[in-house]
Amino acid sequence: MVIGLIVSGGKGLRMGTEVPKQFLPVHGVPILVRTLMAFDEVDSLEALVLVLGRDFIEYFNGLGYTPAKPLYIVEAGEERFSSVRNGLEKAYELDPESAVLIHDGVRPLVSKKIIEDGIAYTRKYGAAACSVALKDTVKSVGKDGFSTGTLERNNYRLIQTPQCFFTKEILSGHKRIQEIDNQVTDDTAVYEAFYGSVYLYEGSYENLKVTTPEDLLLAEAILANREIESCK
Ligand SMILES: Nc1ccn([C@@H]2O[C@H](COP(=O)(O)OP(=O)(O)OP(=O)(O)O)[C@@H](O)[C@H]2O)c(=O)n1
Ligand SMILES: C[C@](O)(CO)[C@H](O)COP(=O)(O)O
């Protein structure tokens, strides 16, 4: 079984809106609904696990969106890390042999190809995450704000989601990593700590994470452009 795990239990503090950003409309449809619709379109995914803050489960149900695939709602934790862990427990309960695609609920522009590639590369390499090349120069910086050097940017990638694994491995990693490191910002770091490298395949600059207000403007523009292109 292949399961999509959508984490959407954050508070959206950097966006600063009253309603958490995952529920804001982008081009007329709530961000989280767009994300779920993208996953619902992928035939080889058999179930969706959605992680939501306890206070927003009813709110989500009130949106009136029901995917065609079975959807299991799980309560969020305080941090993204614990929300993922709660979702992984559910995925393992559904099928201990499953593969899981962990995705931010606030990356609504993810394409079908990116999701399908994640599944294919996980089957081939055991773990995969989509990524993009850096466009700007990258510098290290000291506490005083002065630069301390320039990094070779071709040696780096920006990591997006989905990040894809076999559920039992990444769940076991999650259980063990808290003992050694609670600074992890994503699940590839959990995998690397115990199992080795993750295959980094091509994502897309359009697969942006809606984090701050200008990301919303960009997402609006991309969707408006997609609409124009589809009418041509
Ligand atoms: N306790 C948390 C925190 C985050 N997330 C999810 O993880 C994804 C990426 O997190 P981020 O963009 O940091 O979202 P927020 O935590 O909501 O934002 P902020 O840090 O600005 O408060 C989002 O889909 C968010 O809903 C989650 O499921 N549970
Ligand atoms: C998982 C992630 O989206 C990969 O780029 C990112 O690390 C999430 O970071 P955040 O600080 O929780 O938004």
Automatic annotation (TrEMBL):
CDD domains: CDP-ME_synthetase (cd02516). The gene is ispD. PROSITE patterns: ISPD (PS01295). One of its GO terms (biological process) is isopentenyl diphosphate biosynthetic process, methylerythritol 4-phosphate pathway. It is an enzyme of class 2 (transferase). This is 2-C-methyl-D-erythritol 4-phosphate cytidylyltransferase. It comes from Proteiniclasticum ruminis. Pathway: Isoprenoid biosynthesis; isopentenyl diphosphate biosynthesis via DXP pathway; isopentenyl diphosphate from 1-deoxy-D-xylulose 5-phosphate: step 2/6. Belongs to the IspD/TarI cytidylyltransferase family. IspD subfamily.
